[in-house]
Design a protein that fits this description.
About 40% of the residues lie in helices and about 10% in strands. The chain has about 80 residues and is an alpha+beta fold. The protein has one domain.
Amino acid sequence: MILKIKPPQVERINTLVRNLCCNCIDENCLLLDDGEEHSCVQLLCVSGIYCNYFKNAVLPADKELYAKIMKYNDEKP
């Protein structure tokens, strides 16, 4: 499921990706690596959270942002 985000949240999400995601190396995603480098999908997205790993493992580290996004999308954390 894709979670919608608001424009002001994009920079905070990108900071989380760069600092906490163990799959994001030099802005490339290890999970998408098939022998070629692939840009991190979440760093490219400005309208939603498309990476399940980020949504489940990284985003909850920022409790305030996580709660706001879940409330905005009417989901239970």
